[in-house]
Amino acid sequence: MTAIKTIRERAGAAPVRLGLILGSGLGHLADAVQGVAIDYADLPGFPHAGVSGHRPRLVVGDLEGVRVAVLGGRTHYYEKGDPGVMRAPLETLRDLGVETLLLTNAAGSFRPEVPPGELMLIADHINFAGTNPLFGEPTDARFVNMVDAYDPGIRAALSAAAAEEGVALPEGVYAWYSGPSFETPAEIRALGILGADAVGMSTVPEVILARFLGLRVAAISTITNMAAGMSNEAISHEHTKAMAPLGAAKLERVLRRYLRTLG
């Protein structure tokens, strides 16, 4: 049985309007969806999300009057050495009818005015990992135009939703670092020179794949720490999971307000 058939049998065949991928420590946001949860293990082609802080299940249902599909966890490049590991789940979202994909992640901030607990709307990215999820793609569709990969119209709508909620949502450039080790202070200084405002270990390969598949994309980082060398805090995955909920409540308010404008 295919993933699509399984999803439609359990959650119904109505088209899904929006897809959402949740980052570390943000998986509980899927609980807000009124619908059906399906474990990745029950969906052929879906990878196992093996990082603590992720909940490897797909939730399909209604949120603020919009039919959504929420991926409660992602598999990272550093887990399998495959930058295209999330291709099957994204193809499934497209086949369910999704046209817009919103991604979230936990990230380290370069900007003192955007400290832990705050949010950053991604305006562009730097692929510092040096790999690409479209390696090996045989068609000319692999030559994806990445100008305005983070859709200006969706960004404007998210910014308006944040303003209505009284939530600060500055824009910035996100740098993808492969992980799983955290960055060195020297790498952070280099990324700062290149123009990065935040750094994390996900999102960029999914954005490339989503644009390849023809989806509109936006992404928001929840800031969980200052980047290496910029504070005295000890950076760890446990710290990331502990700090993510500080921004998650703000993120949920922004997403709900944005969805109400769609509904």
From TrEMBL:
Q: Which residues form a coiled coil?
A: none
| Matches recorded under Gene3D superfamilies | Nucleoside phosphorylase domain
**Biological classification of the source:** Bacteria, Pseudomonadati, Pseudomonadota, Alphaproteobacteria, Rhodobacterales
E.C. numbers = 2.4.2.1
Purpose of the protein:
The purine nucleoside phosphorylases catalyze the phosphorolytic breakdown of the N-glycosidic bond in the beta-(deoxy)ribonucleoside molecules, with the formation of the corresponding free purine bases and pentose-1-phosphate.
EC top class, as a word: transferase
The record lists the organism as Amaricoccus macauensis
Limits of the Nucleoside phosphorylase domain: 17-260
Which Gene Ontology CC terms are recorded?
cytoplasm
Indicate what this protein is called per its UniProt record. Purine nucleoside phosphorylase
Question: PANTHER family under this entry?
Answer: METHYLTHIOADENOSINE/PURINE NUCLEOSIDE PHOSPHORYLASE (PTHR11904), PURINE NUCLEOSIDE PHOSPHORYLASE-RELATED (PTHR11904:SF9)
A Gene Ontology molecular function term of the record: purine-nucleoside phosphorylase activity
CDD domains, per database record: PNP-EcPNPII_like
GO BP terms, alphabetized? nucleoside metabolic process
Q: Which residues bind phosphate?
A: 24, 54, 74-76, 106, 202
Record-listed a purine D-ribonucleoside binding positions: 183, 225
Q: Which domain of life is it from?
A: Bacteria
Instruction: Tell me its family.
Output: Belongs to the PNP/MTAP phosphorylase family.
Q: Tell me which UniProt keywords the record has, alphabetically.
A: Glycosyltransferase, Transferase
Q: Describe its partners and assembly state.
A: Homotrimer.
Which pathway features in its UniProt record? Purine metabolism; purine nucleoside salvage
